[in-house]
Amino acid sequence: MAKTRRLALIGIAAIGYSLVFGETFLRAFKPEPLVPRYVTGSSDGIRANMTDVAFRQWTPEVDVTVRYNDRGMRDDRPAPPLTRVAGECRVALVGDSYFVGFESDYPHSFAYQLESRLAKSGVSVRVLDFAVSGFGTAEDLIVLQKRVAPWRPDVVIMSWHASDPDDNFRSGLFRLDGGQLVATGKSFLPGVSVSDVLMRYRAYRWLIENSHIYSAVRERSGRFFKALLVSIRGYGRAAAAVPPDTGPDPATFDLPERDPPVGNPALDLALLQASRAASQAMGAQFLLFDVPIYSSRTRFVSPQRLYLGDLPGFATVSALPTFEAVARPDRKLQL
């Protein structure tokens, strides 16, 4: 018994030493981005930002605080009432972490910059940020239908990113039936039940905001399980059943750590069309915001062109010209 206890203590000590050494090594030589999400489940079957929370995000470049207000929007202010003031224009942002504004303080977020610039031009405006980390177009569509509609925005801006085709297929929220988009009635709440339990503990919240070794394990395991889920659901078979991508040849681009753009463009396009229709039904203009892909410090690629080609009938906005205008070999732009 004494020998067993001694071996157990040695094992615990070895594990503790390994964790301390790993944490110290990463902090000193290869710091990991500390970018917790603070998401939970919702009654509409998809993830939502937690409400009334503030949390730290740290990378080698930034150290910021992110706040979600009483309606889970990225905003340092409480959400406005559903009934708007006379003459107010409302803009709804729908998308993933790029629109949340991770790794930026609120004054440098997309929502704040858009609202402040419109206000300076004389427009009475309120930008409502409904973005949630990890969302694809399928989840964005549900957000439009369930969360955005009661606010009756004048403009809806939806982001499109290179991760959307994977996210749309992996979620299983919609499918095509005879060319028509059909809701499957399923929920998609990956990891939420476990996260909700862990988030009750202050020690865990400290861990996700401060531990480099935990962040490294979480990010790598998250990517692994996302790829595994895509494989299990037969992503490759779905990709082979649709026409080739009509955008530029991906082989002509240097896209570090990215697989060739495969997926179901027909599903992606149907989701975008349904999102535009949902926006128009609430009286809002629909704009698609193309989030550039990083190729090098001086070269960026349009994922819309790469994955979907031209989109006739869509009003699109791209940050690509702005990135290209300010890019320099000695300047790292955050994407």
Major sheet details: 5 strands, parallel
Instruction: Specify the CATH homologous superfamily of the largest domain.
Output: SGNH hydrolase
What is the correct CATH architecture of the largest domain?
A: 3-Layer(aba) Sandwich
Q: In terms of structural class, how would the helical and strand content be classed?
A: alpha/beta
Straight-line distance between termini: 56 Å
Q: Figure out the total of helices.
A: 12
What does this structure look like?
- The structure is a single chain.
- By secondary structure, the chain is α/β, with parallel strands linked by helices.
- The chain has two domains: 1-30; 31-326, 3-Layer(aba) Sandwich (Rossmann fold).
- It is built from twelve helices and 13 strands.
- It has helices spanning 2-29, 97-100, 110-120, 137-148, 164-171, 192-198, 202-210, 212-232, 235-240, 265-281, 303-307, 320-326, and strands at 39-41, 47-49, 53-58, 63-68, 89-94, 125-129, 155-160, 174-177, 180-183, 285-290, 293-296, 299-301, 315-318.
- It has a five-stranded parallel beta sheet with strand order 6-5-7-10-13, with helices on both faces. It has a two-stranded antiparallel ribbon with strand order 1-2. It has a two-stranded antiparallel sheet with strand order 3-4.
- The longest helix has 28 residues, at 2-29.
- It is globular and about 75 Å long.
Provide a short characterization of the protein structure.
Helix 4 runs parallel beside helix 10 (265-281). The chain has helices at residues 2-29, 97-100, 110-120, 137-148, 164-171, 192-198, 202-210, 212-232, 235-240, 265-281, 303-307, 320-326; strands at residues 39-41, 47-49, 53-58, 63-68, 89-94, 125-129, 155-160, 174-177, 180-183, 285-290, 293-296, 299-301, 315-318. The strands form five sheets. It has a five-stranded parallel sheet, with helices on both faces. Strands 1-2 form a two-stranded antiparallel sheet. A two-stranded antiparallel sheet has the order 3-4.
